[in-house]
Amino acid sequence: MSSPFESYITSVIRPIHQTTREERLKIIQEARYNLFKIPSKYVMIDLLTDSGTGGISNQQLAELILGDESYAGSASFEKMKEAVYEVTGFDYLIPTHQGRGAENVLCSTLVKEGDIVPGNSHFDTTKGHIEFRKATAVDCTIDAAREPTTQHPFKGNLDLEKLEEVLRSTPREGIPFVLITVTCNSGGGQPVSLENIRGVAELCKRYGVRLFFDMARFAENAYFIKSREPAFKDWSILKICREMFSQADGATMSAKKDAISAMGGFLALRDEELYQKCSVYSILFEGYLTYGGMTGGTMGVVAQGLREVTDEEYLRTRIMQVAQFGEGLQRREIPIIEPVGGHAIYIDAKRFLPPIPQSEYPAQALAVAAYIEGGIRGVEVGTVLADRDPRTGENRYPALEMVRLAIPRRTFSDNHLRYVAEVFEQLLRNRDQIRGLKITWEAPVLRHFTCQFELI
Ligand code: F0G
Asked: Is 0.85 topped by the overall pTM?
């Protein structure tokens, strides 16, 4: 029988600095209502991201010290390469400073003006890399993903008909690759089924198009496959991972998520010729081929992290914590995206704040209110993030306005998360006091991180 508690104990801690509501009101004004600009010491429960914020293990800490910092041919690189091979079966590895570094190397090699890259709600940096090259990211996610309460075990799935339509109507040389993001972050941390992955791979093969994964949260996706897809319930997590990756030509990885490292990433490839082409950009942008912007120690941390993250007991407690947090919010009648995904809870801001129109950024308004009320930092996943249409300059209004509360791995206790649920309960009771926002300044691309607001 599996135990109802975490598969590890906490042995290194960091204190939380307490703030008052009055202090937070002042801090958020100074930050122009952008939560990215708040110094972390003024955040009590930081759920901004699960990226680079996980608790590292004693064995990972040991790897930091054991790191081989040689410029070329580092032993730590060999360690990482071996671990990546174990999980993915890909022979060629290009380390990068983080996930977007890998996206940059891959897109520099394969994406050109006018191209189309179909996928399931590409993450914003990925979309940024595609659009920066005047290509288009086409979202082929199933329609159920846009319905916040529709129950579907794999809301990250691609709609095979939509995908085939894109593949049929575009010349082959206009599609550098299809990208499957597991789990699908922009769609609510929703998983993709193995059956769907196989279906996508089959289409890609038929149309002669490459298939890549954005594997940032691959282990969490594998756990969902094991627990929700009956055909694979007796498979080990590692076997499921290997089967997923066997369908693809390569993957980009942000090691800050499912490798539980503070930094790092990589591009893993099956084909030597493509590896040679990518190597040029890797050396140009990231660093020499055996470190690519990572220290030797960090490569060791990633290697060890990849092994720990595929441990089923770890994954069970991880997915269970996020699910229980979701249940706690639902008991308090807080509208969330259902079913709960792997790394985060997404609060449905349209249902939470029906009077605030999308043009007044309801999800940003709710995220700001949660900071003021409880010192909690979440992140807007709505109109601010969706940014403007590069052609028309108009706001793009996404189907969902969400506040993401990402849960760092092996970091917060259930008590911390219960406090967060209580704060949102309080906000719901007083929701008529929450005001919309107006943008007073924004950057030309990726405005999310730096734009400034004022209260309406
Ligand atoms: N792909 C996915 C699915 C991601 O979630 C992220 C980052 C990246 C790529 C880029 O990786 O940050 O290492 O360069 N997501 C973080 C988040 C920032 O908070 O969800 P990176």
From this structure: yes
